[in-house]
Amino acid sequence: MPTSFTIRPPRRVIAALLAVLLLTAWLTITTGSEARASDVGGPINRAEVLARAQFWVDRQVPYSQSASHPDPDGRLYRQDCSGMVSMAWHLGSSLSTRTLPNVSVRLGGFGELAPGDMLLRPGVHARIFAGWTDGSRTAAWVYEQPNWNLTARKTTYSMAAMAGQGYQAWRYTGIRDDAPTQAPVLPTTYDRVAVVDGSGSLSVKQGPLTGSWTTVASAVATSAVEGDRVAMLTTGGDLYVKEGESLTGTWTLVYRGVASFDLSGDRIGVVDTNGTVFVKDGPVSAPWVAVQSPGTQVALDAERVGVLDTQGTLWVKDGPLEAMWTKVATSVSTFDLGADRIAVVQKSGAVQVKEGAVTAGWTTVTTGGADVVLAGSRIGVLSTSGAVYVKDGPVTAQWVTLSTTKVELDLYDDRVAVRSASGQVSVKEGPLTAGWVTVTNAGATGVALG
Questions:
Q1: pLDDT digits (tens, 9 = 90+) for 228-256
Q2: CA angle 411, 445, 225 (to 5 degrees)
Q3: Could you tell me where the beta strands, DSSP code E, fall in 93-211?
Q4: pLDDT tens-digit profile of 65-77?
Q5: Residue 154: C-alpha distances to residues 25, 33, 115, 350, 415 (Å)
Q6: Residue 167: how many CB atoms within 10 A of its CB?
Q7: Potential cystine with 242: which of 144, 163, 193, 249 (Cβ 3.0-4.6 Å)?
Q8: Which sequence spans correspond to the domains of the chain?
Q9: 16-176 — its CATH code?
Q10: Phi, psi at 77, each rounded to 5°
Q11: Per DSSP, what are the bridge partners of residue 411?
């Protein structure tokens, strides 16, 4: 079966310095000065909410449902997700995900969000909305206390994924709009293309498709790119990751004895040569969590983890890494996760997609599939004959035939990449009807978009 390096929509796709500079500038404009101090339980402006949330991020406050940590004034708040929201809003005590609605009002939808509002999954998780990732408003920057073994962080999530998981938009009744509240557009994607050639060299280009290549490693079997992260699996089974805006950064060895892996947002997942599946969430140095065994494939997206076991059964968990598994399909040969969608290729070749809850029903979208890739609103299928089909929009949208006689397919945002048996890699960006750009003429053994 062709190998596909599946990369989901980005959640860490900005140079950190640029994000900080833009957010700082916006806060200065909207407040006229530094965020003003509020009283406990009293009115608070949006800039101060974000500044208080950043206070815990800067101090890397660890997640805990029993311990407490001080705010900038020394007042203690519980170190979990709802405790962080309570701290950011300067409430009188640490509320829970079930009681935060008592001090807030539900908004009409995500389109009404402004910085300092809350994204709430009732009874499960709470986040502080900080701004949109770009003008499309399809993903957002948030502050959160994510999970066990992690610390307070600022990260990005797909709005489609959050909608599928049941998140709602809420506004604290004490928040004050004393200045324009249009959220800043902070990050842009790195727009990377990674290619492994027949000699095992890994080359990456960043930006326009006509840009130059940077060779970043040798003796590489497969690669992946996600946001500012680049990952490579060596021919010896060692997984290395580098992160940052520069492609010349230092590699970090994250796991030895890897059979396959995936990247998504702040998560890294591996299937080791013993068949055990491990996932880490957060910095590259975060601890590994064993989530399943035995497994043959792992895929990650937003708050979901999917594992295909040795019997062809697909298991998906939604939420923290310690969440329970849901059996979603059997007789599966390969699968992908994307936003609020799950796609499988059955051993019969039937390609099925479900969207929304993991318990939703399946829709058969085509037959004769060898691989399936999800990215945002797009579904891509590589058929057993080598034809490439992509649809954009609802699951019932029409297929567009993009190419024939290909052996690999990848999707990322508005880009589509294909590889031929000769190793020619072509990429198109924008509408599905856009023309192809040949980025390497021959010799490639793998391609990844991010």
A1: 899 999 999 999 999 888 899 999 999 99
A2: 40
A3: 104-106, 118-121, 125-132, 139-144, 153-158, 168-172, 175-176, 192-197, 202-206
A4: 889 999 998 899 9
A5: 17, 22, 13, 39, 26
A6: 23
A7: 249
A8: 16-176
A9: 3.90.1720
A10: -135, 145
A11: 416
